Amino acid sequence: MTPFLPSPRPALLAAALALACAFGPAAAAPTPLPTGVQAGPCVEGICEYRLGNGLRVLLFPDASRPTVTVNLIYRVGSKQENYGETGMAHLLEHLLFKGTPTHRDIPGEMKKRGIGFNAETSLERTNYYASFPANDATLDWLLGLEADRMVHSDIARKDLDSEMTVVRNEMENGENSPAAALVERVRSTAYLWHRYGNSTIGARSDVEGVPIERLQAYYRAWYRPDNATLVLAGRFDPAATLGSIARRFGPIARPAEPMRSFYTVEPAQDGEREVTVRRVGDIRLLMAAYHIPAATHADAAALAVLEDVLGHVPGGRLHKALVETGLAASAGGGAEQMRDPGLFSAIAALPKDGDEAKARQALLDQLEQIARQPVTAAEVEAAQQRLRNGFELAYTNVSSVAMGLSDAVASGDWRLYFHQRDALDKVTAQDVNRVARDYLTANNRTFGRFVPSQTAQRAAIPAAPDAAVLLKDYVGKAAVAAGEHFDPTPANIQARTETVVIDTGGGRSLKLALLPKKTRGGTVSVTASFNFGNVDALKGREVAGSVAGALMMRGAQGLSREQIDQRFDALKTAARVGGSLQSARIDLTTRREQLADALSLAAQVLRTPTYPDAEFEQYRLQAITGMEASRQEPGSIAGLALAKHFDPWPAGHPLRALSLDESLAALKALKLADVRAFHRDFYGTAEGQISVVGDFDPVALKRQLQSLFADWRAPQAFAPIATSYTAVAAEQRRFETPDKPNGVLLARANLSLKDTDPDYPALVAANYILGGGTIKSRLGDRIRQRDGLSYGVGSDIDADTSRDGRDDAGNWSVEAIAAPENLDKVERAMREEIDRLLRDGVQADELRDAVSGLLTQREQARASDAAIAAGLAGNLFYGRTMQFSADFDAALKALTVDQVNAAIRKHLKPDQLSVYLAGDFAAAAKGGSPAKAPATGAASAAGDAGAGQ
């Protein structure tokens, strides 16, 4: 389940002593420990504890992070499902949001406390996670909820019945994706016996036919404290929190029945296997998968490096051999690291008229003929740097670490997260070439259908050591330095921010917002946007402008695309440099030590793009392939129809909406000279906004920003394109999309609305009540929770924003997915709920909870330095300060029921809604469904993305 945003008696002293012996010497811990709690190992700021009932607890306190993330991981997924039980772990994930005798409305209780929440089921774990601004009462309540639903969830027949169509709709949504369908078929062909071959979403017949008693038994078997790990990260007091955990979870008894064990071992593959999926669509995909060892095996690190050497974009071998040659529009892959042997996979997307035979041969040559061109030490070093950068950047965000530990826990031990990182540094080119030779062989390959060979050659997958043995004496590296305690209120952000205006001449200026503060790992977030162009100058050049911005990082003076990528990797910087019709943009996440060099490199990329011919053709091929792939997708078809109906611009206007064929024709007609000319004629940095938040020297930074950006004036002065409300007559349209088991509903009406209008806060609150959440809102309660028609439904209010406060092109919209045969019911339910909102209005308790949830969400957003940087840049552009945000918060707090109901009745006109439905209505009318085969989970090419709440 995935909402629109994010399972008891005291332990005996003897049990605690036994755990102490089992853990060995304990690391530093809050003292005194609660009764029955034993301390375990600590690694880099994370400490483990264990309750007498077997629950593992990982605490990662960080005072610099004003939020708390709670992640409860159960070691159960599709791997633990037997015959007739496929999809059961995922189905339980849904039902655990349905309630307990104590908590009857879990989504509602979460929402009114402003908790962002979600859940996910994968091959070998199910985890429930939540994040919220640090608050002891909220944390204690959430711990109580998780302890309660660990053992007291209803798992009732009525909830299963209502959720069945929701899960089925989630299946259908996955079935719309050619890639997801191919991944599922390849995985199920690669495994003969092991449950890794099962889709997480399960077989339709199992999900629809499961007896409630069997689901309840499955719940009791796996939702137990000795099968769970509780992770907490962020701003909390460790000693007090550990006491709360012991109080909430300690009374849960460890079941007398031992945990179920699985002993199936997948035999070595003894020949190529192939599978072909034939479905309606406009994109062709090739995929190869090979069995590899489990996460604790010594070869896991070398395989991770090999995956990066092959799959990295733009420097990877697959990209060079397939994409740069035009054989494929894109290519990539992944190497699984799981408890049991997984898959090393590669996938390529071909253009509509591509040469499949040549692409297949090129793909297999890169995978299975590495001996012809062995991996070099330089390639290994570059891959190691990229992988290290990923670890280091993730570790500056404790919430990311809390979530990142999930797979390590499922693989056997949370410390594998660090062990796998450390193992990367020891990998050599010899190791990488050896694992390629051992595992990437034709007889270990699944490409589709099975083809026997004359001689059997088996790639034997060696046994991996137990995680406890591997990590017996593991201590990790030094913990990353934490940042300061920063209060992200609008007032404090404004007080700590220095605003600088640099006069660049000709009536133009460069505005800076600088907020220096100590951060975890010395991180810095940079958002820069530069303005240029006007409506008359841009006419006829909109396609060139779009492509000019998209190709920015594919080559600069003295640097190829790959070299740009390598330079940013070496600087440990996540970077994006690009542009759109009237602006150029730089976004950086880096560290204090690398900030100056990263900014200089970004400026070089922005000012001197070379637009190589090969990269232009590669981008055009990718864009055309993507457009063609969307031609029969319900969402794309309905979305284009909506865009054309609501398009107010005349022919030739740079903002005019184009049809798919018009877009394709414009892209095919585009010349590289047009792209280069757009950069020459429009780009400049002397007018714009730059905001920087994090650990930096303001004096040195101001000097550098002026040097890099103040002297480059755009040839065309900037004048924003004004937008205004346009009345659009309502229309109703249906689109037939054959062989697409998931359908789409889109609805929209235009509003005259600015974000400075007095009614805007009231409309925001009203929309939050109507459809602000997939699960907990009036639309969610009705269409998903009660009627069970849709996996995802929501509404939105969009207000216009401008510098002069005149633009008022707002709109009100609703979106839902559902099986085609249910779309009419969804529309009917939507209209009934809107009519009820207008007729009866909102209630006091609804408004109270909505305001509380909105304020908490806004507070949560300000906990991110990148979000603060983006907000400060927006304030510079619109001439605002953080007082605007504070005033909006105050307006929300002051709302009354009468104000909200008056705003609803003034602005929301159901008879003005245009509604667009797209799906396979012909199949539905015949009483069938285009998705009779078992549906895919939301799996990636590596097969482990899982299915969410």
How would you sum up the global shape?
A: globular
Low-confidence stretches: 1-29, 448-456, 930-947
Quickly give the CATH architecture of the largest domain: 2-Layer Sandwich
**How much strand?**
15-25%
| Residue share in helix | 40-55%
CATH-derived topology of the largest domain: Cytochrome Bc1 Complex, Chain A, domain 1
The major pleated sheet works out as: 8 strands, mixed
Give the CATH superfamily of the largest domain: Metalloenzyme, LuxS/M16 peptidase-like
Output the radius of gyration: 28 Å
- Structural class computed from helices and strand pairing: alpha+beta
Mean pLDDT: 89
Number of discrete helical segments: 35
CATH class of the largest domain: Alpha Beta
Kindly report the spatial arrangement of strands forming the biggest sheet: 1-2-3-7-4-6-5-26
Number of strands: 26
Q: How widely separated are the two ends?
A: 2 Å
Detailed description of the structure:
This protein has about 950 residues and is an alpha+beta fold. It has 4 domains: about 15-260, Metalloenzyme, LuxS/M16 peptidase-like (Cytochrome Bc1 Complex, Chain A, domain 1); about 280-465, 2-Layer Sandwich (Cytochrome Bc1 Complex, Chain A, domain 1); about 490-710, 2-Layer Sandwich (Cytochrome Bc1 Complex, Chain A, domain 1); about 730-925, 2-Layer Sandwich (Cytochrome Bc1 Complex, Chain A, domain 1). It contains 35 helices and 26 strands. Strands 1-2-3-7-4-6-5-26 form an 8-stranded mixed sheet, with helices on both faces. Strands 13-14-20-15-19-18 form a 6-stranded mixed sheet, with helices on both faces. Strands 8-12-9-11-10 form a 5-stranded mixed sheet, sandwiched between helices. Strand 18 and strand 19 (about 585-590) form a beta hairpin. Helix 10 (about 300-310) packs across helix 13 (about 375-395), helix 10 (about 300-310) packs across helix 15 and helix 23 runs antiparallel to helix 25 (about 660-670). The longest helix has 19 residues, at about 155-175. The protein is globular and about 75 Å long. The N and C termini lie close together (about 5 Å).
